[in-house]
């Protein structure tokens, strides 16, 4: 008969420890057991079945405390654990739970506590925490890694982070933290998995500083994942290095995290090394498409196209489907590296594979083909792009317009420009500039004016662009178009700068448009611009070359408009001594003393060359000799005349104009004549260094006087004695004292040579003072 023990009627002598009821018969009793009272066993009706002395603590599962019929059995440990779990679930927490647990007939042990904790539901950690908290204050409690790791696994970091950190502190404070590897791993992994970066990394640093080497691969992976998610790649690499130092093995998850992170951080060599290690390790398997995608993308963008292409082919070979992003990265890398043909081959391969290009890839391919001059391909791709539903960006429109404009394809460029405007896309400054430059080069002035006004309506400043177009017309020699464009600019209220006005003025002078040049110079002077000596000399050079009387008057009028001090000098030079009130030589010296030779030396040299040309053409030889003399005195031509004692005298006229060369030759030979006849100094030879350009001009003039100078490649030379005899001839004396002889004088000289009796006797070879110093 199965008996059930009823409620015992106990007469206790003292309230003490939890009690177990003694059975009616005990086959054996634990040694040292002390009975404290008498227990009556009742049946269901309340009658006393038997009595037995004593009540004492009993260990569940070890001592027989339950009767089954006439047999005594121990209380099963699962039942005792279930009783603990039931109390924790029913009372949950607080003093009531602590009292109930303390009143148990027998105290639990650590293994029974672990068994009860395991049976508690994982969804509600409160009973478990209360049960563990109570047990921590019991004398029989011994901390264990299994119980702590179980508690850590049951706690939600979002709401129980402080409890997790308490578990971590307790485990780390243990004399031997290495005996709690599961707990420490569980805490760090739970914090990292739920995104609690700061406490997770704090725990990791404490473990590293404590020399703990028991972290496992999943824990490291959780730390790497949260750090990379937050963008802290450098901290993730610290964790990875610690993982290598601790000897923890990398699994597939670690490789999947570390390889892309290293690649994105620019540590491409390290990522490739880790990638190769992953491929060679057994049990890891092939890399995921994401890893391949990142490697291809990073290698392509870093310019390692061969490695990127090899990775791309390997990705296809292992059976991964190539994504649009990977193909885009490869095409972009090839195109940007200038390998457009290879990029277009991959583009076609991608299209055949059924991949739809992205908007960015379409844009890049269109622009790349346009910039490389493949305008037909670019136009076709542009059409495909529109058919695919992509709306071209302003940059794409601008690229096509600019490239067609650069190629001079006016119709296509204007059609693309109007399409751009109709699509509501505002052209940029570079687009307007390219389009206007094309129209200017094609001399489509009216169309360029229309586009320029549209550019102004778009809010762009147009003064600089309009001036640039004016310079295009000027440099192209289209002076008439330049004048028309300038008139358009004036009507539109667009101003240009003085530099361009000067350039256009010089172009008009070159083309002989003097009526248009005069108002340009007036505008230039009226804008407070200074006419320098170079500009004035260039106008004078046009006067020298002019052969039409009407044009000469127009150029003289332009010279007067310049208001340059050189013009006053020119006017004074051609007036008489009464108006000048000083000799020519003094007048010339006064003008040249007012020149700033530090800044205008080359301009003054240019002015002297042109002025001497003009004076020679006007027959003003004496004035020309005065100008040359003063110019030489002011060292504008410092190395022109060289006296090498009795050896050689020379005149270097290679860098002079024709008029300056003739004047300097006459003046210098006159100086040589004075030295030889008056002072008796005769050199071995005399040289005239003319260069190839002026050689024939000077040689012809001297040949008409039967000079002893012999013509070589770039020099006219003669012995000093021969030149002395030549200086004694009357025609030479006239040539050197006055001016270049006329044809009739040369003819008379030849007759006198042929018929000496008719030649007048030359009384004196002395230089007449009235001719030697013109007034």
Automatic annotation (TrEMBL):
<dbReference type="Pfam" id="PF23276">
    <property type="entry name" value="TPR_24"/>
</dbReference>
<feature type="repeat" description="PPR">
    <location>
        <begin position="393"/>
        <end position="427"/>
    </location>
</feature>
<feature type="domain" description="Smr">
    <location>
        <begin position="648"/>
        <end position="727"/>
    </location>
</feature>
<dbReference type="InterPro" id="IPR011990">
    <property type="entry name" value="TPR-like_helical_dom_sf"/>
</dbReference>
<comment type="similarity">
    <text>Belongs to the PPR family. P subfamily.</text>
</comment>
<feature type="repeat" description="PPR">
    <location>
        <begin position="323"/>
        <end position="357"/>
    </location>
</feature>
<keyword id="KW-0677">Repeat</keyword>
<protein>
    <recommendedName>
        <fullName>Smr domain-containing protein</fullName>
    </recommendedName>
</protein>
<feature type="repeat" description="PPR">
    <location>
        <begin position="251"/>
        <end position="281"/>
    </location>
</feature>
<dbReference type="InterPro" id="IPR002625">
    <property type="entry name" value="Smr_dom"/>
</dbReference>
<feature type="repeat" description="PPR">
    <location>
        <begin position="358"/>
        <end position="392"/>
    </location>
</feature>
<feature type="repeat" description="PPR">
    <location>
        <begin position="428"/>
        <end position="462"/>
    </location>
</feature>
<feature type="repeat" description="PPR">
    <location>
        <begin position="288"/>
        <end position="322"/>
    </location>
</feature>
<dbReference type="InterPro" id="IPR002885">
    <property type="entry name" value="PPR_rpt"/>
</dbReference>
<dbReference type="InterPro" id="IPR057027">
    <property type="entry name" value="TPR_mt"/>
</dbReference>
<feature type="repeat" description="PPR">
    <location>
        <begin position="216"/>
        <end position="250"/>
    </location>
</feature>
<dbReference type="Pfam" id="PF01535">
    <property type="entry name" value="PPR"/>
</dbReference>
<keyword id="KW-0809">Transit peptide</keyword>
């Amino acid at each position: 008969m199965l008996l059930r023990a009823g409620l015992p009627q106990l007469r206790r002598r003292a309230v003490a420890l939890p009690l177990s009821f003694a059975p009616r018969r005990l086959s054996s009793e634990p040694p040292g057991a002390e009975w404290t009272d008498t227990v009556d066993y009742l049946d269901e009706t309340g009658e006393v079945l038997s009595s037995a002395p004593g009540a004492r603590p009993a260990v569940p599962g070890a001592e027989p405390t339950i009767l089954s019929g006439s047999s005594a059995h121990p209380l099963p440990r699962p039942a005792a654990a279930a009783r603990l779990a039931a109390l924790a679930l029913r009372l949950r927490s607080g003093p009531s739970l602590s009292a109930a647990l303390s009143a148990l007939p027998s105290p639990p042990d650590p293994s029974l506590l672990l068994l009860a904790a395991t049976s508690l539901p994982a969804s509600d950690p409160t009973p478990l925490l209360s049960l563990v908290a109570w047990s921590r204050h019991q004398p029989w409690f011994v901390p264990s890694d299994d119980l702590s790791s179980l508690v850590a696994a049951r706690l939600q970091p979002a709401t129980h982070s402080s409890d997790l950190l308490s578990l971590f502190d307790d485990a780390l404070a243990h004399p031997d933290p290495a005996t709690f590897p599961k707990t420490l791993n569980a805490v760090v992994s739970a914090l990292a998995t739920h995104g609690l970066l700061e406490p997770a990394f704090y725990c990791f640093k404490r473990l590293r500083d404590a020399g703990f080497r028991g972290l496992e691969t999943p824990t490291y992976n959780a730390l790497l994942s949260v750090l990379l998610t937050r963008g802290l790649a450098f901290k993730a690499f610290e964790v990875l290095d610690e993982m290598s130092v601790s000897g923890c093995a990398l699994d597939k998850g670690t490789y999947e995290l570390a390889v892309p992170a290293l690649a994105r951080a620019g540590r491409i060599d390290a990522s490739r090394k880790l990638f190769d290690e992953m491929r060679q390790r057994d049990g890891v398997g092939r890399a995921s498409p994401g890893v391949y995608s990142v490697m291809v993308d990073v290698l392509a963008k870093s310019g390692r196209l061969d490695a990127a292409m090899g990775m791309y082919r390997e990705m296809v070979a292992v059976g991964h489907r190539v994504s649009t992003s990977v193909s885009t990265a490869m095409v972009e890398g090839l195109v940007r590296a200038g390998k457009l043909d290879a990029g277009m081959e991959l583009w076609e391969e991608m299209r055949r594979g059924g991949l739809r290009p992205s908007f960015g890839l379409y844009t890049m391919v269109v622009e790349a083909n346009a910039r490389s001059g493949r305008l037909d391909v670019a136009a076709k791709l542009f059409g495909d792009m529109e058919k695919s539903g992509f709306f071209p960006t302003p940059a794409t429109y601008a690229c096509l317009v600019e490239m067609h404009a650069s190629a001079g394809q006016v119709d296509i460029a204007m059609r693309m420009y109007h399409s751009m405007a109709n699509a509501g896309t505002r052209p940029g400054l570079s687009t307007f500039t390219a389009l206007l430059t094309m129209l200017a080069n094609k001399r489509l002035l009216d169309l360029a004016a229309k586009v320029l006004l549209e550019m102004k309506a778009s809010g762009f400043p147009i003064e600089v662009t309009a001036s640039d177009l004016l310079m295009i017309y000027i440099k192209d020699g289209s002076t008439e178009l330049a004048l028309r464009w300038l008139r358009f600019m004036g009507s539109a209220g667009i101003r240009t700068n003085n530099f361009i006005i000067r350039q256009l003025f010089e172009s008009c002078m070159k083309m002989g448009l003097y009526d248009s040049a005069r108002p340009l110079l007036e505008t230039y002077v009226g804008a407070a611009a200074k006419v320098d000596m170079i500009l004035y000399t260039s106008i004078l050079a046009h006067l020298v070359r002019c052969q039409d009387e009407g044009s000469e008057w127009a150029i003289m009028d332009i010279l007067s408009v310049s208001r340059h001090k050189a013009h006053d000098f020119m006017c004074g030079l051609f007036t008489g001594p009464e108006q000048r009130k000083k000799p020519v030589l003094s007048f010339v010296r006064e003008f040249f003393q007012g020149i700033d030779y530090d800044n205008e030396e080359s301009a003054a040299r240019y002015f002297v060359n042109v002025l001497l040309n003009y004076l020679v053409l006007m027959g003003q030889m004496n004035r020309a000799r005065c100008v040359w003399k003063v110019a030489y005195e002011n060292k504008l031509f410092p190395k022109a005349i060289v006296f090498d004692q009795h050896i050689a005298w020379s005149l270097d006229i290679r860098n002079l104009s024709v008029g300056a060369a003739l004047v300097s030759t006459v003046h210098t030979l006159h100086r040589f004549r004075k030295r030889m006849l008056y002072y008796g100094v005769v050199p071995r030879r005399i040289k005239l260094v003319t260069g190839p350009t002026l050689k024939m001009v000077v040689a012809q003039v001297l040949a008409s006087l039967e000079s002893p100078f012999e013509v070589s490649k770039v020099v006219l030379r003669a012995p000093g004695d021969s030149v002395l005899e030549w200086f004694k001839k009357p025609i030479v004396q006239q040539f050197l004292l006055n001016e270049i002889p006329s044809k009739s004088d040369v003819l008379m000289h030849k007759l006198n040579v042929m018929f000496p009796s008719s030649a007048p006797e030359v009384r004196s070879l002395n230089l007449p003072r009235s001719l030697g110093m013109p007034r």
